[in-house]
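Fig. S4 source data, part A: sequence.
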Amino acid sequence: MNGESELPEGWVSAKLGDLISDIQPGFACGEHNREGDGYPHLRPMNISIDGKIDLTVVKYIPSEKVDTESKILQFGDVLFNNTNSTELVGKTAFYNLKELRAFSNHMTRIRCIPKILDSPYCALYIHELWREGYFGEHCNKHVSQSSISRNVLAETPINLPPLAEQRRIVAAVEQLLARVNASRERLDRVPGLLKTFRQAVLAAACSGRLTEGWREREENLEPISLFLKRTHLPKKVARGNFRLKQLDPSKLPILPKLWEWHHIHEVAERVTVGYVGPMKDEYVCEGIPFLRSQNVREGGFDPSGLIFISKEFHDKIKKSALEPRDLVIVRSGNVGTACVIPDNLTEANCSDLVIVKQPFGFISEYGAYFLNSVAKSEIDAGKVGIALSHFNTQSVANLPMPIPPLPEQHEIVRRVESLFAVADRIEQRVAIGKERADRLTQAILAKAFRGELVPTEAELARREGREYEPAGVLLERILASREKKDKKENRQ
Protein backbone atom coordinates (compact mmCIF):
# COMPACT_ATOMS: atom_id res chain seq x y z
CA MET A 1 0.00 0.00 0.00
CA ASN A 2 2.99 2.28 0.34
CA GLY A 3 5.48 3.70 -2.13
CA GLU A 4 5.53 7.37 -3.15
CA SER A 5 6.66 6.70 -6.73
CA GLU A 6 3.49 4.71 -7.34
CA LEU A 7 1.07 7.24 -5.88
CA PRO A 8 -1.65 8.83 -7.98
CA GLU A 9 -1.44 12.48 -8.91
CA GLY A 10 -2.20 14.74 -5.97
CA TRP A 11 -1.39 12.08 -3.33
CA VAL A 12 1.49 12.10 -0.87
CA SER A 13 3.06 9.56 1.46
CA ALA A 14 3.06 10.91 5.02
CA LYS A 15 3.67 9.74 8.57
CA LEU A 16 0.55 9.35 10.67
CA GLY A 17 2.08 11.56 13.36
CA ASP A 18 2.17 14.50 10.94
CA LEU A 19 -1.57 14.19 10.23
CA ILE A 20 -2.98 14.03 13.74
CA SER A 21 -3.44 16.38 16.68
CA ASP A 22 -3.42 13.76 19.42
CA ILE A 23 -2.37 10.14 19.98
CA GLN A 24 -3.32 8.90 23.43
CA PRO A 25 -3.35 5.42 25.03
CA GLY A 26 -6.07 4.68 27.56
CA PHE A 27 -5.79 3.47 31.14
CA ALA A 28 -6.03 0.19 33.01
CA CYS A 29 -8.67 -0.52 35.63
CA GLY A 30 -9.00 -3.78 37.54
CA GLU A 31 -12.44 -2.95 38.93
CA HIS A 32 -15.04 -3.78 36.30
CA ASN A 33 -18.45 -5.32 35.75
CA ARG A 34 -20.77 -6.19 32.88
CA GLU A 35 -23.98 -5.08 34.56
CA GLY A 36 -23.77 -1.48 33.36
CA ASP A 37 -22.68 0.03 36.68
CA GLY A 38 -20.37 2.98 36.10
CA TYR A 39 -18.63 4.12 32.93
CA PRO A 40 -18.18 2.00 29.77
CA HIS A 41 -14.53 1.05 29.23
CA LEU A 42 -13.68 -0.22 25.74
CA ARG A 43 -11.09 -2.96 25.30
CA PRO A 44 -9.57 -4.98 22.39
CA MET A 45 -12.68 -7.16 22.08
CA ASN A 46 -14.66 -4.03 21.22
CA ILE A 47 -13.01 -3.75 17.80
CA SER A 48 -14.16 -6.46 15.40
CA ILE A 49 -11.94 -8.01 12.76
CA ASP A 50 -14.07 -6.10 10.25
CA GLY A 51 -12.84 -2.82 11.70
CA LYS A 52 -16.06 -1.85 13.48
CA ILE A 53 -16.89 -0.88 17.05
CA ASP A 54 -18.44 -3.96 18.65
CA LEU A 55 -20.46 -3.43 21.82
CA THR A 56 -21.63 -7.05 22.19
CA VAL A 57 -19.70 -7.29 25.46
CA VAL A 58 -18.84 -4.08 27.32
CA LYS A 59 -17.11 -3.76 30.66
CA TYR A 60 -17.93 -0.93 33.05
CA ILE A 61 -15.66 0.70 35.61
CA PRO A 62 -16.30 3.06 38.54
CA SER A 63 -17.02 6.57 37.23
CA GLU A 64 -14.54 8.14 39.64
CA LYS A 65 -11.72 6.23 37.89
CA VAL A 66 -12.34 8.06 34.62
CA ASP A 67 -10.47 11.19 33.57
CA THR A 68 -13.20 12.78 31.47
CA GLU A 69 -10.82 15.49 30.26
CA SER A 70 -8.20 13.36 28.49
CA LYS A 71 -9.19 9.67 28.48
CA ILE A 72 -12.53 9.74 26.71
CA LEU A 73 -13.65 8.68 23.24
CA GLN A 74 -15.91 11.03 21.33
CA PHE A 75 -17.53 10.94 17.91
CA GLY A 76 -14.91 11.24 15.18
CA ASP A 77 -12.04 9.58 17.05
CA VAL A 78 -10.12 6.61 15.68
CA LEU A 79 -9.55 3.69 18.07
CA PHE A 80 -6.42 1.53 17.63
CA ASN A 81 -5.73 -1.79 19.41
CA ASN A 82 -2.13 -1.39 20.60
CA THR A 83 -1.77 -4.66 22.59
CA ASN A 84 -3.04 -8.11 21.63
CA SER A 85 -1.82 -11.32 20.05
CA THR A 86 0.53 -10.79 17.10
CA GLU A 87 -2.31 -11.68 14.73
CA LEU A 88 -4.74 -9.15 16.22
CA VAL A 89 -2.61 -6.21 17.32
CA GLY A 90 -3.39 -3.23 15.10
CA LYS A 91 -7.14 -3.66 14.62
CA THR A 92 -8.62 -0.22 14.08
CA ALA A 93 -12.10 1.31 14.01
CA PHE A 94 -13.72 4.69 13.48
CA TYR A 95 -15.64 5.73 16.59
CA ASN A 96 -18.95 6.80 15.08
CA LEU A 97 -21.03 6.83 18.27
CA LYS A 98 -22.45 9.85 20.09
CA GLU A 99 -22.03 8.38 23.57
CA LEU A 100 -18.78 9.13 25.40
CA ARG A 101 -16.76 6.09 26.50
CA ALA A 102 -13.45 5.45 28.21
CA PHE A 103 -10.83 3.08 26.77
CA SER A 104 -8.21 0.78 28.23
CA ASN A 105 -4.42 1.01 28.11
CA HIS A 106 -4.50 -1.64 25.37
CA MET A 107 -6.18 0.89 23.11
CA THR A 108 -4.90 4.11 21.57
CA ARG A 109 -7.09 7.06 20.62
CA ILE A 110 -6.14 8.91 17.45
CA ARG A 111 -7.49 12.39 16.66
CA CYS A 112 -6.98 13.51 13.10
CA ILE A 113 -6.33 17.04 11.88
CA PRO A 114 -9.68 17.41 10.11
CA LYS A 115 -8.51 19.67 7.28
CA ILE A 116 -6.02 17.08 6.00
CA LEU A 117 -7.02 13.61 7.28
CA ASP A 118 -10.58 12.30 7.32
CA SER A 119 -11.10 10.07 10.40
CA PRO A 120 -13.04 7.30 8.56
CA TYR A 121 -10.31 7.23 5.88
CA CYS A 122 -7.64 7.03 8.60
CA ALA A 123 -9.39 4.10 10.33
CA LEU A 124 -10.00 2.29 7.05
CA TYR A 125 -6.38 2.71 5.94
CA ILE A 126 -4.80 1.64 9.25
CA HIS A 127 -7.14 -1.35 9.55
CA GLU A 128 -6.15 -2.43 6.04
CA LEU A 129 -2.49 -2.20 7.07
CA TRP A 130 -3.42 -4.60 9.88
CA ARG A 131 -5.07 -6.99 7.41
CA GLU A 132 -1.90 -6.98 5.33
CA GLY A 133 0.26 -7.85 8.35
CA TYR A 134 2.04 -4.52 8.73
CA PHE A 135 1.64 -4.33 12.51
CA GLY A 136 2.51 -8.00 12.95
CA GLU A 137 5.88 -7.18 11.39
CA HIS A 138 6.47 -3.96 13.36
CA CYS A 139 5.17 -4.93 16.82
CA ASN A 140 7.17 -5.71 19.95
CA LYS A 141 6.65 -9.40 20.68
CA HIS A 142 6.39 -10.25 24.38
CA VAL A 143 5.84 -13.64 26.04
CA SER A 144 2.07 -13.83 25.67
CA GLN A 145 1.19 -10.76 23.61
CA SER A 146 2.49 -8.14 21.21
CA SER A 147 2.31 -4.36 21.25
CA ILE A 148 2.65 -1.26 19.12
CA SER A 149 4.10 1.75 20.91
CA ARG A 150 2.83 5.27 20.43
CA ASN A 151 6.05 6.22 18.61
CA VAL A 152 5.84 3.28 16.19
CA LEU A 153 2.20 4.11 15.46
CA ALA A 154 3.08 7.76 14.82
CA GLU A 155 5.70 6.63 12.26
CA THR A 156 3.15 4.54 10.33
CA PRO A 157 3.14 5.61 6.66
CA ILE A 158 -0.17 6.76 5.16
CA ASN A 159 -0.85 7.23 1.46
CA LEU A 160 -2.82 10.45 1.50
CA PRO A 161 -5.09 11.84 -1.22
CA PRO A 162 -6.72 15.28 -1.00
CA LEU A 163 -9.45 15.47 1.64
CA ALA A 164 -12.42 15.46 -0.74
CA GLU A 165 -11.03 12.38 -2.46
CA GLN A 166 -10.58 10.63 0.90
CA ARG A 167 -14.28 11.11 1.60
CA ARG A 168 -15.27 9.80 -1.83
CA ILE A 169 -13.06 6.74 -1.30
CA VAL A 170 -14.67 5.99 2.08
CA ALA A 171 -18.19 6.39 0.67
CA ALA A 172 -17.43 4.10 -2.30
CA VAL A 173 -15.76 1.45 -0.13
CA GLU A 174 -18.65 1.45 2.36
CA GLN A 175 -21.21 1.10 -0.42
CA LEU A 176 -19.38 -1.77 -2.12
CA LEU A 177 -18.49 -3.60 1.10
CA ALA A 178 -22.08 -3.33 2.31
CA ARG A 179 -23.12 -5.40 -0.71
CA VAL A 180 -20.27 -7.86 -0.22
CA ASN A 181 -21.09 -8.22 3.49
CA ALA A 182 -24.77 -8.75 2.74
CA SER A 183 -23.79 -11.62 0.44
CA ARG A 184 -21.43 -12.99 3.08
CA GLU A 185 -24.17 -12.88 5.72
CA ARG A 186 -26.48 -14.87 3.44
CA LEU A 187 -23.71 -17.43 2.89
CA ASP A 188 -23.08 -17.63 6.64
CA ARG A 189 -26.68 -18.75 7.18
CA VAL A 190 -26.38 -21.69 4.80
CA PRO A 191 -24.38 -24.10 7.06
CA GLY A 192 -27.05 -23.85 9.75
CA LEU A 193 -29.77 -24.50 7.19
CA LEU A 194 -27.86 -27.51 5.85
CA LYS A 195 -27.42 -28.91 9.36
CA THR A 196 -31.18 -28.64 9.88
CA PHE A 197 -31.75 -30.21 6.46
CA ARG A 198 -29.51 -33.18 7.24
CA GLN A 199 -31.21 -33.76 10.58
CA ALA A 200 -34.62 -33.61 8.89
CA VAL A 201 -33.47 -36.16 6.29
CA LEU A 202 -32.25 -38.53 9.01
CA ALA A 203 -35.44 -38.13 11.02
CA ALA A 204 -37.50 -38.89 7.90
CA ALA A 205 -35.25 -41.87 7.13
CA CYS A 206 -35.68 -43.43 10.58
CA SER A 207 -39.44 -42.87 10.73
CA GLY A 208 -40.27 -44.30 7.30
CA ARG A 209 -41.37 -40.97 5.78
CA LEU A 210 -38.41 -40.87 3.39
CA THR A 211 -39.39 -44.17 1.72
CA GLU A 212 -43.16 -44.01 2.13
CA GLY A 213 -43.93 -43.95 -1.61
CA TRP A 214 -41.27 -46.56 -2.38
CA ARG A 215 -42.68 -48.90 0.28
CA GLU A 216 -46.21 -48.70 -1.15
CA ARG A 217 -44.95 -49.77 -4.59
CA GLU A 218 -42.82 -52.67 -3.39
CA GLU A 219 -44.04 -56.24 -3.06
CA ASN A 220 -42.64 -59.26 -1.22
CA LEU A 221 -41.21 -57.24 1.66
CA GLU A 222 -40.90 -59.05 4.97
CA PRO A 223 -40.20 -57.95 8.54
CA ILE A 224 -36.60 -58.18 9.62
CA SER A 225 -37.52 -60.88 12.17
CA LEU A 226 -38.60 -63.29 9.40
CA PHE A 227 -35.44 -62.59 7.43
CA LEU A 228 -33.24 -63.20 10.45
CA LYS A 229 -34.96 -66.48 11.35
CA ARG A 230 -33.88 -67.85 7.97
CA THR A 231 -30.35 -66.47 8.05
CA HIS A 232 -28.41 -65.22 11.07
CA LEU A 233 -30.50 -66.32 14.03
CA PRO A 234 -29.94 -70.08 13.77
CA LYS A 235 -26.20 -69.47 14.12
CA LYS A 236 -26.65 -67.12 17.07
CA VAL A 237 -29.09 -69.45 18.83
CA ALA A 238 -26.66 -72.31 18.39
CA ARG A 239 -24.01 -70.35 20.30
CA GLY A 240 -26.17 -69.92 23.40
CA ASN A 241 -29.59 -69.28 24.86
CA PHE A 242 -31.00 -66.61 22.55
CA ARG A 243 -34.47 -65.72 21.39
CA LEU A 244 -35.37 -62.74 19.20
CA LYS A 245 -38.23 -60.86 20.72
CA GLN A 246 -40.09 -57.82 19.49
CA LEU A 247 -40.60 -54.97 21.92
CA ASP A 248 -44.06 -53.97 23.08
CA PRO A 249 -45.11 -51.45 20.39
CA SER A 250 -47.73 -49.90 22.68
CA LYS A 251 -44.93 -48.22 24.66
CA LEU A 252 -43.09 -46.92 21.59
CA PRO A 253 -43.90 -44.66 18.63
CA ILE A 254 -46.00 -46.21 15.87
CA LEU A 255 -43.96 -47.63 13.00
CA PRO A 256 -44.82 -48.15 9.32
CA LYS A 257 -46.09 -51.51 8.17
CA LEU A 258 -43.48 -54.29 8.41
CA TRP A 259 -41.13 -52.20 10.57
CA GLU A 260 -40.23 -53.60 14.00
CA TRP A 261 -38.69 -52.41 17.25
CA HIS A 262 -35.67 -54.40 18.48
CA HIS A 263 -32.94 -53.85 21.02
CA ILE A 264 -29.62 -53.21 19.29
CA HIS A 265 -27.86 -56.11 21.04
CA GLU A 266 -30.34 -58.56 19.48
CA VAL A 267 -29.44 -57.61 15.91
CA ALA A 268 -25.63 -57.40 16.16
CA GLU A 269 -22.90 -59.87 17.05
CA ARG A 270 -22.28 -58.06 20.34
CA VAL A 271 -21.99 -54.65 21.96
CA THR A 272 -18.70 -53.98 23.71
CA VAL A 273 -16.43 -51.10 24.68
CA GLY A 274 -13.05 -49.80 23.59
CA TYR A 275 -9.91 -50.09 25.67
CA VAL A 276 -10.00 -48.20 28.97
CA GLY A 277 -6.64 -47.93 30.68
CA PRO A 278 -3.27 -46.13 30.71
CA MET A 279 -1.97 -45.32 27.23
CA LYS A 280 0.96 -42.96 27.75
CA ASP A 281 3.65 -45.49 26.84
CA GLU A 282 1.72 -47.35 24.13
CA TYR A 283 1.65 -44.82 21.28
CA VAL A 284 3.97 -45.28 18.29
CA CYS A 285 4.65 -43.25 15.16
CA GLU A 286 3.41 -45.97 12.83
CA GLY A 287 1.35 -49.06 13.52
CA ILE A 288 -2.29 -49.97 14.16
CA PRO A 289 -4.75 -47.02 13.96
CA PHE A 290 -6.18 -46.27 17.42
CA LEU A 291 -9.46 -44.34 17.27
CA ARG A 292 -10.61 -41.81 19.87
CA SER A 293 -13.74 -39.69 20.22
CA GLN A 294 -12.32 -36.99 17.95
CA ASN A 295 -12.18 -39.48 15.06
CA VAL A 296 -15.93 -40.16 15.25
CA ARG A 297 -18.08 -37.63 13.37
CA GLU A 298 -21.66 -37.69 12.20
CA GLY A 299 -20.38 -37.47 8.64
CA GLY A 300 -18.19 -40.55 9.09
CA PHE A 301 -14.73 -41.55 10.26
CA ASP A 302 -12.40 -38.53 10.57
CA PRO A 303 -8.66 -39.38 10.39
CA SER A 304 -7.62 -35.97 11.78
CA GLY A 305 -5.30 -36.45 14.75
CA LEU A 306 -5.33 -40.23 14.35
CA ILE A 307 -2.80 -41.97 16.61
CA PHE A 308 -1.26 -45.46 16.45
CA ILE A 309 -0.37 -48.35 18.74
CA SER A 310 2.02 -51.25 18.25
CA LYS A 311 0.92 -54.58 16.81
CA GLU A 312 1.91 -56.23 20.08
CA PHE A 313 -0.33 -54.01 22.20
CA HIS A 314 -3.15 -54.35 19.68
CA ASP A 315 -2.96 -58.14 20.05
CA LYS A 316 -3.21 -57.77 23.86
CA ILE A 317 -6.46 -55.80 23.65
CA LYS A 318 -8.28 -57.78 20.96
CA LYS A 319 -11.60 -57.21 22.74
CA SER A 320 -11.62 -53.63 21.42
CA ALA A 321 -10.33 -54.49 17.93
CA LEU A 322 -12.29 -52.94 15.06
CA GLU A 323 -13.11 -54.20 11.60
CA PRO A 324 -14.96 -52.70 8.63
CA ARG A 325 -18.74 -52.28 9.12
CA ASP A 326 -18.50 -52.04 12.91
CA LEU A 327 -20.32 -49.09 14.49
CA VAL A 328 -18.48 -46.95 17.03
CA ILE A 329 -20.27 -44.51 19.35
CA VAL A 330 -18.86 -41.70 21.48
CA ARG A 331 -19.53 -42.19 25.19
CA SER A 332 -17.96 -39.03 26.61
CA GLY A 333 -18.02 -35.52 25.25
CA ASN A 334 -20.31 -35.45 22.22
CA VAL A 335 -22.25 -38.43 23.60
CA GLY A 336 -24.10 -40.61 21.10
CA THR A 337 -22.27 -39.51 17.95
CA ALA A 338 -21.73 -42.58 15.77
CA CYS A 339 -19.96 -43.58 12.57
CA VAL A 340 -19.26 -46.71 10.53
CA ILE A 341 -15.73 -48.12 10.35
CA PRO A 342 -14.88 -47.76 6.65
CA ASP A 343 -13.80 -50.65 4.44
CA ASN A 344 -10.26 -49.30 4.03
CA LEU A 345 -9.64 -49.44 7.80
CA THR A 346 -9.00 -53.17 7.78
CA GLU A 347 -7.26 -53.35 11.16
CA ALA A 348 -7.78 -50.89 14.01
CA ASN A 349 -8.47 -50.50 17.70
CA CYS A 350 -10.07 -47.84 19.84
CA SER A 351 -10.18 -46.12 23.20
CA ASP A 352 -13.31 -45.76 25.33
CA LEU A 353 -15.85 -45.97 22.49
CA VAL A 354 -18.94 -48.16 22.49
CA ILE A 355 -18.62 -50.74 19.70
CA VAL A 356 -21.51 -52.43 17.94
CA LYS A 357 -19.79 -55.42 16.36
CA GLN A 358 -20.93 -56.57 12.92
CA PRO A 359 -24.66 -55.71 12.85
CA PHE A 360 -26.70 -58.35 11.00
CA GLY A 361 -30.23 -57.06 11.54
CA PHE A 362 -29.53 -53.63 10.06
CA ILE A 363 -27.12 -52.03 7.63
CA SER A 364 -24.34 -50.23 9.50
CA GLU A 365 -25.07 -46.92 7.73
CA TYR A 366 -28.73 -47.12 8.75
CA GLY A 367 -27.65 -47.74 12.34
CA ALA A 368 -25.46 -44.63 12.23
CA TYR A 369 -28.37 -42.59 10.84
CA PHE A 370 -30.56 -43.70 13.73
CA LEU A 371 -27.94 -43.09 16.41
CA ASN A 372 -27.01 -39.65 15.02
CA SER A 373 -30.59 -38.43 14.78
CA VAL A 374 -33.47 -39.89 16.78
CA ALA A 375 -31.36 -41.70 19.38
CA LYS A 376 -28.91 -38.83 19.90
CA SER A 377 -31.63 -36.22 20.34
CA GLU A 378 -33.42 -38.42 22.88
CA ILE A 379 -30.18 -39.15 24.72
CA ASP A 380 -29.41 -35.41 24.86
CA ALA A 381 -32.91 -34.75 26.17
CA GLY A 382 -32.69 -37.59 28.73
CA LYS A 383 -35.77 -39.30 27.28
CA VAL A 384 -34.41 -42.82 27.14
CA GLY A 385 -33.31 -43.24 30.74
CA ILE A 386 -29.61 -42.82 29.96
CA ALA A 387 -27.61 -40.40 32.08
CA LEU A 388 -24.87 -38.79 30.00
CA SER A 389 -22.31 -39.61 32.69
CA HIS A 390 -23.26 -43.32 32.52
CA PHE A 391 -23.44 -43.85 28.78
CA ASN A 392 -22.01 -47.35 28.30
CA THR A 393 -22.44 -50.65 26.48
CA GLN A 394 -25.75 -51.41 28.18
CA SER A 395 -27.05 -47.99 27.24
CA VAL A 396 -26.51 -48.84 23.57
CA ALA A 397 -27.32 -52.55 23.79
CA ASN A 398 -30.77 -51.90 25.26
CA LEU A 399 -31.61 -48.97 23.02
CA PRO A 400 -34.87 -49.62 21.10
CA MET A 401 -34.25 -49.28 17.37
CA PRO A 402 -36.88 -49.08 14.59
CA ILE A 403 -35.81 -51.58 11.91
CA PRO A 404 -37.38 -51.68 8.44
CA PRO A 405 -37.20 -54.62 6.03
CA LEU A 406 -33.70 -55.10 4.65
CA PRO A 407 -34.48 -53.92 1.06
CA GLU A 408 -35.99 -50.74 2.50
CA GLN A 409 -32.85 -50.14 4.55
CA HIS A 410 -30.81 -50.26 1.34
CA GLU A 411 -33.21 -47.77 -0.28
CA ILE A 412 -32.99 -45.49 2.78
CA VAL A 413 -29.19 -45.49 2.62
CA ARG A 414 -29.26 -44.75 -1.12
CA ARG A 415 -31.64 -41.82 -0.68
CA VAL A 416 -29.84 -40.35 2.32
CA GLU A 417 -26.48 -40.53 0.54
CA SER A 418 -28.02 -38.87 -2.53
CA LEU A 419 -29.56 -36.03 -0.49
CA PHE A 420 -26.40 -35.56 1.59
CA ALA A 421 -24.38 -35.37 -1.63
CA VAL A 422 -26.56 -32.44 -2.71
CA ALA A 423 -25.92 -30.76 0.66
CA ASP A 424 -22.17 -31.41 0.30
CA ARG A 425 -22.16 -29.75 -3.13
CA ILE A 426 -23.98 -26.73 -1.71
CA GLU A 427 -21.39 -26.50 1.09
CA GLN A 428 -18.61 -26.54 -1.49
CA ARG A 429 -20.30 -23.75 -3.43
CA VAL A 430 -20.73 -21.75 -0.21
CA ALA A 431 -17.02 -22.16 0.59
CA ILE A 432 -16.14 -20.95 -2.91
CA GLY A 433 -18.55 -18.04 -2.49
CA LYS A 434 -16.90 -17.03 0.79
CA GLU A 435 -13.45 -17.16 -0.80
CA ARG A 436 -14.68 -14.95 -3.63
CA ALA A 437 -16.20 -12.50 -1.12
CA ASP A 438 -12.88 -12.31 0.74
CA ARG A 439 -10.95 -11.76 -2.48
CA LEU A 440 -13.46 -9.13 -3.59
CA THR A 441 -13.07 -7.27 -0.29
CA GLN A 442 -9.30 -7.28 -0.71
CA ALA A 443 -9.59 -6.15 -4.31
CA ILE A 444 -11.92 -3.25 -3.40
CA LEU A 445 -9.58 -1.98 -0.70
CA ALA A 446 -6.50 -2.42 -2.88
CA LYS A 447 -8.10 -0.39 -5.67
CA ALA A 448 -9.24 2.24 -3.16
CA PHE A 449 -5.74 2.86 -1.84
CA ARG A 450 -4.19 2.82 -5.32
CA GLY A 451 -6.50 5.67 -6.33
CA GLU A 452 -8.43 3.48 -8.81
CA LEU A 453 -11.83 3.20 -7.11
CA VAL A 454 -13.03 6.78 -7.60
CA PRO A 455 -11.83 9.63 -9.85
CA THR A 456 -8.87 11.41 -8.33
CA GLU A 457 -9.22 15.03 -7.30
CA ALA A 458 -6.67 15.91 -10.00
CA GLU A 459 -8.84 14.26 -12.70
CA LEU A 460 -12.01 15.98 -11.48
CA ALA A 461 -10.28 19.36 -11.34
CA ARG A 462 -9.16 19.02 -14.97
CA ARG A 463 -12.62 17.94 -16.08
CA GLU A 464 -14.27 20.85 -14.28
CA GLY A 465 -11.63 23.40 -15.24
CA ARG A 466 -10.72 24.35 -11.68
CA GLU A 467 -7.72 24.40 -9.39
CA TYR A 468 -7.16 21.92 -6.56
CA GLU A 469 -4.61 21.63 -3.79
CA PRO A 470 -2.49 18.44 -3.78
CA ALA A 471 -2.26 16.72 -0.42
CA GLY A 472 1.51 17.30 -0.34
CA VAL A 473 1.12 21.07 -0.60
CA LEU A 474 -1.33 21.16 2.31
CA LEU A 475 0.92 18.86 4.34
CA GLU A 476 3.90 21.20 3.83
CA ARG A 477 1.85 24.13 5.11
CA ILE A 478 0.71 22.20 8.19
CA LEU A 479 4.24 21.02 8.98
CA ALA A 480 5.62 24.52 8.52
CA SER A 481 2.96 25.93 10.82
CA ARG A 482 3.69 23.24 13.41
CA GLU A 483 7.42 23.92 13.25
CA LYS A 484 6.82 27.66 13.67
CA LYS A 485 4.57 27.00 16.68
CA ASP A 486 7.16 24.66 18.25
CA LYS A 487 9.93 27.24 17.87
CA LYS A 488 7.76 29.89 19.47
CA GLU A 489 6.96 27.63 22.43
CA ASN A 490 10.66 26.76 22.85
CA ARG A 491 11.62 30.46 23.01
CA GLN A 492 9.11 30.96 25.77
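Fig. S4 source data, part B ends here. The chain has three domains: 4-161, 163-218+406-468, 222-404.
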